[in-house]
Amino acid sequence: MPQTPPSPSSDAAKQIKLVALRLFAQHGIDGVSVRQIADAAGQKNHNAITYYFGSKDALIRELIVDGAKAIDQRRNAALDAAQASGGPSTVRQVMEILVDSSIDPNPPIWGESYTRFIVGMQMSNRALFMDALAGRWNSGYLRCLDDVRRLCADMPADVLNQRLVFMGAALGGIISGREAELSDHSRGHPMWSAPETLRRVAAALAAIITQDASQTE
Q1: How far apart are CA 159 and CA 154, in angstroms?
Q2: What's the pLDDT score for residue 1?
Q3: Cα-flanking dihedrals φ and ψ of residue 3, to 5°?
């Protein structure tokens, strides 16, 4: 179940991070000021971001790492469980792990924001995004790619590598779109909230990779 964000008085830093993530996802990092974050987080002192994080850039970096670390931990745990059972045995199973691990199992009350945030970051300030990660917190993703390569060993490497790029872009775009739709509480979103939707997303991603190459030339 979604968690109600903590009050500023009980956990100001966590509240600021939750609010900043939502605002950055909605408006981009350049579209949100420190003052707006403080106001939205209920902080009367507009220097709260500097006090808790040092700077806006430092806050952004912490948000990037927090989300990437959580996803990587979920991804590796799912891969470990699959390997314990002799898998992953199909490309679709790998895609299900990628999709499921991208979803926050315990989001704030207004919904998930992380994928929208990082998709926007990669488009507007990829250098900051990559520098914040410093090559960390992507081991689960790389393991998934290795499993796909193992399962598609007969596919030409250049074709497979291209399809993996397409798949990664599609994964980010679809999950980002899902977050945006579900964050709109003015109406229902039966397609995005349906349990089978994420399975169908995984099936579509698997199709990007496994489609007969002769049909795409």
Answers
A1: 11
A2: 43
A3: -100, 140
